Task: inverse folding
């Protein structure tokens, strides 16, 4: 009987030890991004004036996510019978960034490019990035970012594409990051090193009379509950731009008050504190800089 009791005790201790081990393994700490400030640069010509250079220095910007080109579906023949993903709106480098600022080549890919598999697309994009860096004497590149508003329809093809991009980047020792829109938080995480949570263009532009389509806390709140379980390191990007458009022959401007940006920032950081570590604004432009006070930028970039 005593041996039986001893065996039972040992079995119980083993089971408890195993359970604790599994719980600890399941509660492993999420990888966090380094603390840093960044901006997007989304123009077709890289040229900085004194205001923009001063901004980089004043707010300790250490990264610029620079849109190199778009990838869109374009006809491959005169009749337009066949469409293939092709580069479009390529940036022209007329200037250089300060040496202390890392440039991150960023490629925007339209969602319809991911409706089917395109053999060799990943390799072509990576090679084009390398050629642009070499041609424009750009050094110290460590990362590529892909921006795509993928949906449930295109997700699997897009994730397979990202795996192929990752393979190509492993040869040249680059990291891979992607943008993550709010609706994409409900999907499995992409196979990349980290994501940038896009906290702009959050609303339906057709309902502009009810809410600001650029950013409104009410459009963000339904997705906040997905943040903590989204198992991917995340930076956060906030809008500082003006969206101008004509609606029924009337010129309409959509801008976001600094207080609204800060309300959104506080809301997402309460749910997931590491979103305060890497903060990005969209996008670098002297008119955007003048739109907000210095204290506003200090609060947005506050870690």
Result:
């Amino acid at each position: 009987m005593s041996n039986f009791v001893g065996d039972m005790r040992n079995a119980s201790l083993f089971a408890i030890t195993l359970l604790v081990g599994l719980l600890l393994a399941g509660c492993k700490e999420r990888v966090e991004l380094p603390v840093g400030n960044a901006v997007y640069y989304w123009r077709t010509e890289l040229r900085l004036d004194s205001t923009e250079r001063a901004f980089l220095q004043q707010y300790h910007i250490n990264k610029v996510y620079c849109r190199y080109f778009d990838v869109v579906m374009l006809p491959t023949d005169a009749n337009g019978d066949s469409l293939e993903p092709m580069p479009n709106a390529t940036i022209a480098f007329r200037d250089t960034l300060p040496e202390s600022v890392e440039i991150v080549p960023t490629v925007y890919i339209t969602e319809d490019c991911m409706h089917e598999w395109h053999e060799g697309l990943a390799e072509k994009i990576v090679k084009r990035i390398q050629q642009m860096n070499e041609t424009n004497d750009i050094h110290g590149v460590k990362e590529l970012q892909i921006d795509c508003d993928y949906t449930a329809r295109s997700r699997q093809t897009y994730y397979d594409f990202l795996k192929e991009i990752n393979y190509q980047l492993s040869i040249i020792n680059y990291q891979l990051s992607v943008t993550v829109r709010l609706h994409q938080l409900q999907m499995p995480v992409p196979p990349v090193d980290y994501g940038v949570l896009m906290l702009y263009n959050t609303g339906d532009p057709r309902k502009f009379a009810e809410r600001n389509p650029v950013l409104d806390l009410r459009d963000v709140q339904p997705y906040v509950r997905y943040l903590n379980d989204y198992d991917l390191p995340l930076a956060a990007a906030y809008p500082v731009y003006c969206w101008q458009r004509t609606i029924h022959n009337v010129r309409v401007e959509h801008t976001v008050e600094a207080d609204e940006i800060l309300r959104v920032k506080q809301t997402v950081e309460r749910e997931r504190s590491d979103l305060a570590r890497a903060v990005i604004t969209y996008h670098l432009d002297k008119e955007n800089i003048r739109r907000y006070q210095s204290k506003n930028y200090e609060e947005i970039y506050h870690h």
Remarks:
- The radius of gyration is 23 Å.
- The first strand starts at residue 36 and ends at 41.
- Confidence is low (pLDDT under 50) at residues 1-5, 7-28.
